[in-house]
Amino acid sequence: MTEHINIKIRLFSHARYHFGKNEVTIALPRGSSIAEIAAELRSMGGTKFKKVPFRIARNHKIAGDNEIIREGDELACIPPVQGG
To answer: How far, rounded to the nearest angstrom, does the alpha carbon of residue 76 sit from its chain's CA centroid?
Structure first.
């Protein structure tokens, strides 16, 4: 049996708009990667969110797709910033 961990992800900009909240929690198998987190967010975000580019920050640094998430990591979904 695969053990799952709950991952909280803070949402900013377009991500916050599409999800309608500041944070989401997802359950993924222990040993999941940043790429798997991003794929889960895309599937949860709906059709329009699939087109929004974003990066995942892990513990205040942009994370690579192959990094493994550990319980207690602080994650954030960061789309491009808009403004002028």
So the answer is: 6
**pTM summary value:** 0.86
Do 48 and 81 contact (CB within 8 A), yes or no? no
Assess contact for 71 and 46: CB atoms under 8 A.
Answer: no
Tokens of 46: 């709906």
DSSP state, 33?
Answer: B
> What pLDDT does residue 48 have?
81
Please report the sign of the dihedral spanned by the C-alpha atoms of residue 67, residue 68, residue 72, residue 77: positive
Cα(60)–Cα(62) distance, rounded to whole angstroms?
A: 7
pLDDT at 82: 63
Mean pLDDT value across residues 18-23 = 93
By the 8 A CB rule, do 15 and 81 touch?
Answer: no
